[in-house]
Fold these 2 entries.
Entry 1:
Amino acid sequence: MSDERASCASLLTPTGRGAVAVIAAEGAGATAAIDAAFRAANGRSAAAQPLDRIAFGEWGAGEHREEVIVIRSGDAAFEIHCHGGVAAAQRILAALESAGCVIQSQADWAKQRSASLIESEADAVLAQATTRRTAEMLLNQRNGALQQAVAAIRELLNAGQLDAACDQLSRLLERAPLGRHLIEPWLVAIAGRPNVGKSSLINAIVGYQRAIVFDQPGTTRDVLTAETAIDGWPVRLADAAGIRETNDPLEAEGVARARQQLQRADLVLWVLDGATLADSPQIAAAREWREELGVAEIDRVLIVVNKADRVDARRRAAGGVEFCYTSALTGDGLPALLSAIAKRLVPSPPQREAIPFTVRQVELLHSALNAANHSHTDEAQALLAQLAL
Ligand SMILES: Nc1nc2c(ncn2[C@@H]2O[C@H](COP(=O)(O)OP(=O)(O)OP(=O)(O)O)[C@@H](O)[C@H]2O)c(=O)[nH]1
Ligand SMILES: [Mg+2]
């Protein structure tokens, strides 16, 4: 039977990103390629490996010889785990290809082996998830959370309960931004006047010297970013020039870029210098961000009073708008800042709920809600059927 199946192989992990790369391969070509190149420590041939057990051994010969793990996952179906760099995976894929395997993209591989479109979309997206938390949420969708939510809405439509169906559709759509950010990081811009400690803060958060820190205003010119995870959410932090009016053309370009970053950001950390703060943080921040962002943008701003090591403890009594005291120098207040950022990005994290996570899903849900809102039940049904194919 295995001989009738087309031989194919696919690199399942993103190229060169993890410590280990995983290649799936099946068919007679895969078995032949493994037998030609792989010497298992247990001395058995590929087809004689026990099912779902790890077979450790070496792939190739000479200078390109390397340690790999082969797992026989089915009748003439294998997983090969090798070093995560590009070269090892490419060598193994080339060997598989020359033994007759068709090399498929990870998305195509997943599509052919999934029970539903949502499942294959989840497989494709899962390979790009960068945190355990987001991977777990995507796995829930792969295991049926979204499929079941869509089925429940279709039953409501069947039963003529239009209002309830619209309500459920709206709730699903409310989670669409979170779904997008399961793989696309949130952009958090660190902004404020020059010399307040923005670059020091980004360094303190990511734990290494990403940005140059210097006791002169106007140190940072270009926008620089660092990817990290905050409370399990993927975040791209952006540090940029301190914002002020300037006649220096180079600094002015930096300020213009910092302003663009402010517009794009999902959240802005507006940093104040605690050491030179004359007013209360609310008053100072309100004045500064009103000039930059306008009052309407307040939802996107979290005020940070940095250099807290130089703030009199009595002055810390605060109220009103939420803000954080930090010291990039001592690390004081950083855990609280990270919690505040996570809370702003995802105020109420879903547990095991359905989350739409692709543009296709979100567009179909929008159209279905629109149809249901106009009492076009059949159209809404058809759109949801298409979503959960
Ligand atoms: N005491 C104290 N000094 C700090 C703290 N954070 C930064 N500094 C100092 O403040 C100065 C400016 O820090 P930077 O991080 O370069 O400030 P910036 O906001 O990035 O400045 P620009 O890039 O010029 O806009 C440096 O001398 C830092 O060592 C802090 O929490 N406490
Ligand atoms: Mg700087």
Entry 2:
Amino acid sequence: MLTLEEIRGVPKVLLHDHLDGGVRPQTVAEIAERIGHRLPVEDPDDLGRWFADAAGSGTLVRYLETFEHTVAVMQTTEDLVRVARECVVDLAGDGVVYAEVRWAPEQHLTAGLTLTGAVDAVREGFAQGTAEAQRAGRTIVARQILTAMRHQARSLEIAELAVAYRDSGVVGFDIAGAEAGYPPTRHLDAFEYLHRENAHFTIHAGEAFGLPSIWQAIQWCGADRLGHGVRIIDDVDTSDPSAPRLGRLAAYVRDKRIPLELCPSSNVQTGAAASIAEHPVGTLADLGFRVTVNTDNRLMSQTSMSREMALLSEAFGYGLDDLRWFSVNAMKSAFLPFDERLAMIQDVVKPGYDTRSLDTL
Ligand SMILES: O=c1[nH]cnc2c1ncn2[C@@H]1O[C@H](CO)[C@@H](O)[C@H]1O
Ligand SMILES: [Zn+2]
């Protein structure tokens, strides 16, 4: 079993992290006080616990209700820049070398920001955070994924925004929010547009809802990756553990190397997995799916990339070789151009593990 310190010391790659799910409790408290937003509790320590407790109530809908308080404090250029800067600094401090951070611009317009103004603010925050991390001796590359809310009707507009910013820090598109009742096919026009533009996207699917949602995301919408996708396990027959049998959809996902953006702690909180030890990540990794490990919402899950890895190491006995496999998998699956991904794998990810094993000899 690896310690948190050992895990912090090796390079990690994060593909599924929500900007509004990773705000520091202190920052939520400070901005809320300044703008007069009422919080359920005021002390930052208590606030961190409140988010985790409220988000841990067992359903995705309850989990998502907590975002009201983070989104509320991210409505101006100044506050979005701050949250984005702190996000990158925190990730870099945890040893994340590449991160795709998603958020939904349409939720940040209540104080008069425009969609482009909001994206520019996050871009500025990422640039400041990257520079601050660099000064502290940490190198990180951070990119945005623009999310559209699946219960709203702005997905085509947000997809257009993502394409407009494709050379300005945005690498992809996503849909998120409550899954039940809002199938991905509601947003087919956005996905078809992205295909025509040769753009990349992931879809939150197979979290609260099972195989039909994954099937739609892949076969109707053509998603490059699956946000969570954890319920693909429902299409794997493990009644004979020595010879697991894959159904057609699971086989397709594995054959096509479709990346699964698994988020262990988040899945336990929303009831998608009973516990970390029972999380399908172990089986899916053993079966050779393109598994990646992610944080989802660091605030709501009181977690970090290193902590997620530590929990898996504890539950499944993973060592540095496994962490390296997860990190290379994630870097291969990133929405960065191929040559940049390759350079990250060869120059940053792999050397980080090689040096590490030499150190421990
Ligand atoms: O795990 C999740 N499943 C579905 N939607 C989510 C999850 N985590 C966060 N969001 C939603 O995505 C929005 C943009 O970041 C958040 O405001 C939240 O409503
Ligand atoms: Zn998510």
